[in-house]
Structure formats: C-alpha cells, structure tokens
C-alpha cells in the first residue's frame, strides 16, 4: 500500500478545517501542534491558510500514561504556549493518531494551563487503532495497518510519510 502524500492531503485539510471552524462560529482559533510532527503539520496548515499567527507547541512527554514504563525521552522540550488558554478556541494538531494516548496527554496538559472554550482535533493520519474514544474533527487520511507496522512523518520540509516495521512481540 502506498502512503498518501502530505502535500496533497494538506490543502484538503486546510479547507476542511476552515469549514469546521466556520460551522462552529470560530473566527480566531489558536493553533497548537504536538511536538514534533504535529508542529510541522500545524505550520503547514497556517501557511496554507495565509496566517502568520503564534503557534503553540506541546511536548506531552511528562503527561503520557506510559511515562513510568518508558522513562523520559532524551529530547524532551518544554511546551511553549504564547497565548492564554482560558476561553480560547484551540486547534490541536497531531501528525499520526493511533491509540489516542498522545492526544489524551495533550488535553491533560492544556487543561493544566487553563480552560479552553473548545478544542478541535486535526490529524494528518488516523491509523484506525484507537484504544481511547478520541476522533479527529479533521483528518487527512485514514489507514488500517498490520499490528507490526507504523507510519512516521518526516520533516519539517518537505513533509513525507514512511512505513516502519516492528518485530512481533510473540
């Protein structure tokens, strides 16, 4: 199976996001990308929308529920939210939605900063392997993969997707 090209998905996502925001009466959303791939996708969407606004960056490493099992990633960076969270309409952007645990961690972190008016979720890919009831409001493509395969976003420019295969746990 050939992976979709992010350059083809992003314009469709930008249009779908504009429609989503408009239908919800949101005129001034605040964009937040989940480190690292979500930040790349968020910046690409802002560029496509012709927007030069502040972009928030979340590193959810400390908020992950597998933190005690996996330990601290060697490249953990602090989150940077250059705007208030309270009362804001947020657009949370991730590259690949798989289990939903990264998005859950991001929501936990965001609520530590304040109470947003709303959070819309945008994902480049949905791997249709959720363990939590989290679904994107805007998605570029949905794929179903064998248990030993994952998809990784390469970037920041140009953005590209690649398959990764893991050894079976059996």
Give the helix/strand layout.
Layout: H1 6-23, E1 30-34, H2 37-48, E2 55-58, H3 67-70, E3 89-97, H4 101-113, E4 118-126, E5 138-142, E6 149-154, E7 160-165
Parallel strand pairs: 1-2, 1-3, 3-4, 4-5
Antiparallel strand pairs: 6-7
Helix pairs in contact: 1-2
What does this protein structure show overall?
This protein is of the alpha/beta class and 170 residues long. The chain starts with 5 loop residues before the first helix and ends in a 5-residue tail after the last strand.
Over all CA atoms, what is the radius of gyration? 16 Å
Separate helix tally: 4
Structural class: alpha/beta
N-to-C order of helices and strands: HEHEHEHEEEE
Strand order, largest beta sheet: 2-1-3-4-5
Give the amount of beta strand, in percent: 25-35%
Mean pLDDT: 90
Keywords:
170 residues, alpha/beta, 5-stranded parallel β-sheet, 7 strands
Q: What is the structure about, briefly put?
A:
With 170 residues, this protein is of the alpha/beta class. The protein is built from four helices and seven strands; from the N terminus they run αβαβαβαββββ. The strands form two sheets. Strands 2-1-3-4-5 form a five-stranded parallel β-sheet.
